[in-house]
Write a structure and sequence with these properties.
Length: 328
């Protein structure tokens, strides 16, 4: 499937797109996966690429470390498989989406082997280029936008269900088209997906307005924990281990940036006792991916994450020490 001439005008490098299209064209069976705690971009990319390949006559399985039910409104969600530690068959061809390094795919690694050929599709600037073929485009808003270019480049038909999955992933990773990686090309891709059947009102409602009762209550508890630091330039929010039993609302971290003058927001989520998943968000001045990287994490300049062991106060102080240096 040679890439079409107009597929890369606002997208990945033509040679990377051509290599990705050839990878998908040359094999008949694939395993698709994404990072642990999969989000809208990873899930949307997997579901869209699976449908594109199945419609092209390929055999495809999606295998994830965990399957969040927030995306169960998308076609194909119920066919996603939970990765098994005891997997005995390694995929000959795998596509890893929205994941900067292979360490982040969790138990899905058991479905890959030393002989597995990997296509790496991502938009994180800290991607380790671990694939045999790498389609990594940090200028794009999302991995789903990259998959859109793959579909256009390979001339695979984007049907209504594929369009919905891709539109959802783009909407998720742009925060509703608000984040700085949103470009004219992003809007052009979204417009084409709407023309192909994506229901923008329904998808937005399912993604942003369809929370469980306890999850909405959780937003209140997290906002109640809000504290300001570093001359009111940093906001921290906390979800304790007990709070996390009510769910995980990722966008809670954005409430910290609602405060006038706050440059960085930090959300500490106690996944296990004294073990925190941390979400970092930035307005303009601070590249939070550099801070996350100091704790073994990563992501984007304005949205990153990491994991830290310690008490809530220890984790908070460690993060504030690093953020403070970047603000000074």
């Amino acid at each position: 499937m040679p890439p079409s001439s107009d597929a890369s005008s606002n997208g990945p490098r033509p040679q990377d797109l051509a290599a990705a299209c050839s990878f998908l064209d040359d094999a008949e069976e694939f395993v698709l996966t994404s990072h642990i705690n999969s989000d809208g971009d990873g899930i949307g990319g997997c579901l869209a690429l699976r449908r594109l390949l199945v419609n092209a006559g390929k055999k495809v399985a999606i295998v994830l470390n965990d399957i969040p039910d927030a995306y169960d409104f998308l076609e194909g969600w119920d066919e996603i498989q939970v990765a098994a530690e005891g997997a005995t068959t390694a995929a000959a061809h795998a596509v890893v989406l929205d994941c900067p390094n292979l360490d982040r795919i969790g138990n899905a690694a058991h479905h890959l082997g030393d002989g597995s050929r990997i296509l790496n599709i991502d938009h994180h600037k800290d991607n380790k280029l671990f694939g045999d073929v790498n389609l990594v485009a940090p200028m794009l808003s999302s991995t789903c936008e990259a998959v859109y270019h793959v579909a256009r480049g390979s001339q695979m038909a984007i049907d209504e269900q594929t369009a919905a999955a891709l539109y959802m992933g783009i909407l998720f990773d742009t925060g509703g088209f608000r984040f700085s990686l949103t470009t004219a090309g992003t809007f052009e891709a979204a417009a084409e997906l709407v023309r192909r059947g994506a229901r923008l009102d329904y998808i937005a409602d399912q993604l942003f307005g369809n929370k469980e009762f306890e999850s909405v209550k959780l937003i209140g508890r997290s906002v109640d924990s809000l504290e300001l630091h570093c001359d009111d330039q940093v906001a921290t929010l906390l979800l304790t281990h007990a709070d996390m039993r009510s769910g995980d609302v990722e966008e809670i971290v954005n409430y910290g940036l609602l405060v006038k003058g706050v440059e960085v927001a930090l959300l500490l989520k106690e996944q296990d006792p004294n073990y925190f998943r941390v979400s970092l968000r930035s307005r303009d001045r601070v590249d939070v991916s550099l801070i996350a990287a100091e704790f073994g994490g990563g992501g984007h300049a304005k949205a990153s994450g990491c994991r830290i062991q310690g008490t809530a106060d220890q984790v908070r102080q460690a993060l504030l020490a690093k953020v403070g240096k970047h603000l000074s």
